[in-house]
């Protein structure tokens, strides 16, 4: 049985006078339940575009702007009349009738460094400072999926929160990828393996002959099992987390459906090719399989690295980097995987119950810099959503003529967080408690009602 969403303070106050009106306690609970939002989605697939994808090169092109703004590529028409996308995204152009494009994302507390902006993007909470040296800490806010695991965990046998295939970092590990002060029990099932690898699987504890599931209910028995298979400890997220939440680990060990989700060889070759035989492509396919198996929040990190030879979106043009060469890798990869994921979910009847979110930590500067690329720009960028009760074939908001600032609508990471939680049926004002037992709302934004169907 799933845990009930805790009351927000505002919701509690709104029904707090019910006893004065003669309501019994059961009637009061009924009133509270009606005050809660109804879930529009069973799961969220969060595609984090590490490095910050530029809106000028993707979903908010400015073909009439000067050369130094317009950029390197031409726009193309899409399935939605009047909605232009980059010419390097032809497959995405064919599915815009299933997308909700938000062109007015903005940091109200601008964070220009990757680690601080990344934390903001992964939690919906602005960090205390915009510092590239921001260190991962249990004092900072937990990841979205950890909050979902705390308030509305998945059914027995499935992991609520799964993340892969990278731990993202820029110098130091980016905060916001784990449960923080909620405790290790709510950390993601993290899989640091390449889903495109020939031998990809979920490293797991194997059950010796004679060791029945009932015996595994004993903490002593499972710790003995871990000791006997210590070589898995470094690779297996299940094994690493078993000391904090061994019952959950046992349920996954004895749940064939969830374990089978990691076996990508069960997919047709054509399906795997459709997603692309790349780390990111197969990661997106794995995300769909995990949602089918009961996971409720899946983080797929587009890249481990930013800049240099990494696949991330950080295209400054430093050190003689060929920005067009870089984008000629990034854009086709995005075109294939995003379109494949959305279409696959749609064809399987899963898109209505799954919210797909494609977003990075910020956008890129409206003007191309003297280095030949674009720098960090949190004042205006784009997010793309699909399914989960969002409007299809819809564009929300608009930016000015050079894509520098929103002119119509405004959405922040806080608002995106509130919208995702609301989609899953969680009250964005519900509270969790930090290490000092202080109540904190899970979101400090407002649900973007404009994008909801």
Task: Write a concise keyword list for the protein shown above.
8-stranded mixed β-sheet; two-stranded antiparallel sheet; 15% strand; Alkaline_phosphatase_core_sf; alpha/beta; Alkaline Phosphatase, subunit A; 3 domains; single chain; DUF1501; 14 helices; 453 residues
Helix content: 25-40%
**What do the pLDDT scores average to?**
86
Corresponding CATH architecture of the largest domain: 3-Layer(aba) Sandwich
The overall number of domains is 3
Radius of gyration: 22 Å
User: How many individual helices?
Assistant: 14
Strand order of the largest sheet: 8-5-9-1-10-13-4-14
Helical/strand content category: alpha/beta
End-to-end C-alpha gap: 29 Å
Assembly state (oligomeric): single chain
User: Segments where pLDDT lies below 50 for 5+ residues?
Assistant: 1-7, 9-36
Shape: globular
Going by CATH, the homologous superfamily of the largest domain would be: Alkaline Phosphatase, subunit A
Looking at the structure, the CATH topology of the largest domain is Alkaline Phosphatase, subunit A
How much of the residues is beta strand, in percent?
5-15%
Assigned CATH class of the largest domain:
Alpha Beta
The major pleated sheet works out as: 8 strands, mixed
How many β-strand stretches?
18
